[in-house]
Design a protein that fits this description.
By secondary structure, the protein is of the alpha+beta class. Helix 2 packs antiparallel against helix 8 and helix 12 (about 395-430) crosses helix 20 (about 690-720).
């Protein structure tokens, strides 16, 4: 067998065009199918990281605000009350919302987003957990990446780290890499777990006349025979009297089944691409085999047995398929990284897709199919070549099958290219969109210690701004307060001429408009003397508040005092690239509290040459205990709002690229097969005076007809299916004929070039050589 493998390698290297084409086709098919399988694997084949996950459910409480107002004094069950329901649960655990922990590590403070859990939380889920005695107050289990950020060697066992503002916490272990919270659509990963003692399942508070409701997240392991419906029926009645409704969901449904249909559909699409890939690889192998009839005949004449010839052909298939599979795995890694970069967190609840043993095994099985396809085609060509009576014959059904194969592949490629073209054009429109900001402006979201007073926070902001403004390369710096780390704005109400208006209020320091790149339409920013007495409106609010177009110098009521409008700026898309600017007001930042993060905006002189410093140390020198939660450019922050579109564009482009390459490579093989089957006929035509152009047309006409049919059909289907992409399109309509026509024309161009390669070779054949083909 080694001898056959050596002969096979020399044979492939002697005429590498066809084997290389087949290897490329196989590699692209393997890469795409494997990437899709890696994304769908967590939802299709990977078990949940919980023991006997079918018996684990989540219990969620939903307040009915109207009923709560009438029954605010109704008693709610306690967590201990439900834990005693042994008729329903083997165990009941609880967890709360993310809490920001501040860990002192040398000269810096490291933020960790940890989740408070009851001491039996991991045991209830069925995750390897510390004992109840170990997992007590002050004990923490960290995720491995979080432990690395804190600088802990998890192999050393128990370790104590300082916790701000005072005290310490004991890190007693690391969470398994596969651990996930039983919570769908999380947008952040879990840094760690720490214990707390839950009491009431929900709390109701009244703050200045506004009612606030907070509820625990509950996880239960059901007793054998108990269903989620039975739990819901048993617990709903007392909750309804207190103004709450209840939903009980199996974790398998919550974490897996909601995305299984999507994952299965994507995997099916990948499998179809792989099937087309195998068919085209087989076509290339068949064409190559038909051209080797004389070579293999001489091999047998020199004494080779049929078994040795078969082993030679199978060895070639193993080499071609093995190279294609190996390259495909490498391409798949790159494709998976590209997908990971834009993958929305809701599609990675069970972990970021990666190459696991199952994924590699899937690639290996797919590679075996491609090897079998090439081997079967080569053996078929050899079998037909050994029978002179079958040379040159082709049934009508085989011709129709070839026509259907070409037109079907062109149709699929046209549909995918059309979708990719629409998404690509939409993404281009978004990338070129004027956001109202300077995209090079940097944004840092900083959280201050919760124990800091408003005065102390405001002083820290001014000290930090002074540090930023003294940095080389920074043109302007300002601070603003907002509702969360990804936007500047909070909510507010102003009164204009007795009319209350709902606005997005942003409290800013001096230099804010220069630091963010927001442009004034009219007027100016308030001076230092006007601080607290003058405000700036965006154009949307100015039009609504003052329809006569004269906003500057007018008076309005902001909070409890009046203010004068000093200027109007262009509206900025601070809520996302696809959302229009909303009415907004900019007032002076006169107070700040530690419960809301502060966003610093910095405008570098030259973003391409600016080297970011260690932001954590820089901020913490001015404000000990402060932590930087995020540091990106404004453009990057806004780009997060279109991750769904980015993800869809990347995936659709990968499918379109793969299908186009496979289709064009397959056309080379299919037309080459026609040339090989009709070589003798071509020789006769050339001998009696046919010109090269006539021979090329003879060979290509069926491929041209099939390509035209597939292109028209694909364009029609793409226009119809594109309406399903409307939610992801911006600045281009579904079924846009210009975009679909350009992608279709491009596909036809490449298809015809692919078909012309073997056809041109046929037009240059010598009549003598062609007549010897029989």
């Amino acid at each position: 067998m080694l001898l056959e493998a050596s002969l096979a390698l020399r044979s492939l290297m002697r005429r590498p065009a066809a084997p290389a084409s087949a290897a490329i086709v196989i590699a692209i098919g393997i890469a795409l199918a494997t990437t899709v399988f890696a994304m769908g694997d967590p939802y299709l084949t990977r078990p949940l990281p919980y023991a006997d996950a079918r018996r684990v459910v989540t219990i969620d409480l939903h307040p009915n605000m109207a009923k709560l107002l009438a029954t605010r004094n109704a008693d709610l069950p306690t967590f201990a009350d439900w834990q005693e329901r042994g008729d329903l649960f083997v165990a009941l655990a609880a967890y709360g919302d993310d809490t920001l922990l501040r860990i002192r590590v040398g000269p810096r403070v490291v933020p960790l987003r940890a989740v408070p859990v009851s001491h039996n939380f991991l045991a209830t889920l069925g995750v390897v957990a510390p004992s109840a005695a170990d997992f007590t107050s002050g004990a923490v289990w960290l995720a491995a990446p979080a432990a690395a950020r804190v600088g802990l060697d998890v192999r050393r066992g128990y370790q104590v780290v300082p916790l701000l503002p005072s005290g310490a916490m004991s890190v007693i272990g690391t969470l398994p890499e596969t651990f996930v919270l039983p919570q769908a659509d999380r947008t952040t990963s879990v840094d760690g777990l720490f214990t707390f003692s839950p009491e009431r399942i929900a709390t109701i508070s009244n703050d200045g006349g506004a009612m606030h409701v907070s509820a625990l997240h509950l996880v239960a392991r059901l007793r054998p025979g108990v269903t989620p419906q039975a739990v819901q029926a048993a617990l709903s009645v007392p909750l309804a009297r207190a103004g709450f409704t209840l939903s009980v969901t199996a974790v398998t449904t919550l974490l897996k089944e909601r995305l299984q249909s999507l994952a299965f559909g994507a995997l099916l699409a990948g499998a179809l691409v792989l099937l087309v890939c195998c068919a085209n690889a087989a076509g290339i192998g068949l064409t190559r085999g038909l051209h080797r009839t004389v070579e293999l005949g001489m091999f047998e004449t020199l004494g080779a047995t049929r078994r040795r010839v078969a082993e030679l052909l199978i060895s070639e298939a193993v080499i071609v398929g093995g190279v294609g599979t190996t390259v495909g795995l490498g391409l798949g890694v790159g494709a998976l990284r590209a997908v990971d970069a834009v993958l929305p967190m809701k599609f990675a609840t069970l972990g970021v897709p990666t190459y696991t043993r199952r994924v590699v095994l899937f690639a290996a099985v797919a590679g075996l199919f491609t090897i079998a396809s090439w081997a079967a085609a080569s053996l078929m060509a050899w079998s037909r070549g050994r029978d002179p009576r079958r040379i040159g014959r082709e049934s009508r059904s085989l011709g129709l099958a070839r026509f259907a194969l070409i037109s079907g592949q062109i149709t699929a490629a046209a549909v995918l290219l059309g979708g990719a073209g629409l998404l690509g054009r939409s993404y281009w429109n978004l990338a070129r969109l004027d956001t109202g900001f300077d995209g090079a402006s940097l944004a840092l979201t900083v959280s201050y210690p919760p124990e800091d007073s408003p005065t102390r926070v405001l002083d820290a902001i001014h000290r930090t701004l002074t540090t930023f403004r003294q940095m080389p390369g920074i043109v302007a710096a300002a601070a603003s307060t907002g509702g969360d780390s990804d936007r500047f704005s909070g909510n507010g109400i102003i009164v204009v001429g007795g009319r209350p208006l709902f606005v997005e209020r942003t409290n800013v320091t001096s230099g804010f408009f220069q630091a963010t790149g927001m442009q004034f339409i009219i007027g100016r920013a308030p001076t230092a003397e006007e601080s607290g007495q003058a405000v700036v409106l965006n154009e949307q609010l100015a039009r609504r508040a003052f329809p006569d177009g004269k906003a500057v110098g007018r008076t309005l009521i902001v909070g409890s005092h009046s203010a004068i409008v000093s200027g109007v700026v262009r509206g900025a898309r601070d809520r996302g690239l696809t959302r229009e600017a909303t009415p907004a007001l900019f007032a002076a930042l006169e107070t700040a509290t530690a419960d809301a993060p502060v966003t610093y905006s910095l405008l570098p002189n030259d973003a391409s040459t600016f080297t970011p410093p260690d932001w954590d140390l820089l901020v913490q020198r001015s404000a000990p205990g402060a932590v930087v939660l995020n540091s990106t450019s404004l453009q990057e922050r806004l780009s997060r709002s279109i991750r769904d579109r980015s993800f869809a564009t990347v995936v659709m482009t990968l499918f379109a690229f793969a299908t186009t390459v496979i289709t064009t490579a397959g056309l080379v093989g299919i037309v080459g097969y026609v040339v090989a089957r009709r070589t003798h006929e071509i020789g006769i035509r050339l001998a009696i005076g046919a010109r090269g152009g006539q021979v090329i047309w003879l060979v290509m006409r069926d491929a041209i007809a099939a390509t035209a049919t597939g292109a028209v059909l694909g364009t029609v289907i793409a226009a119809w299916l594109s309406h399903g992409l409307e939610a992801l399109l911006y600045g281009v309509s579904a079924g846009n004929l210009t975009t679909l026509s350009v992608t279709t024309v491009g596909l036809i161009f490449f298809a015809l070039i692919a078909a012309a390669i073997p056809a041109r070779r046929a037009g240059r054949l010598s009549p003598t050589v062609a007549l010897r083909a029989e």
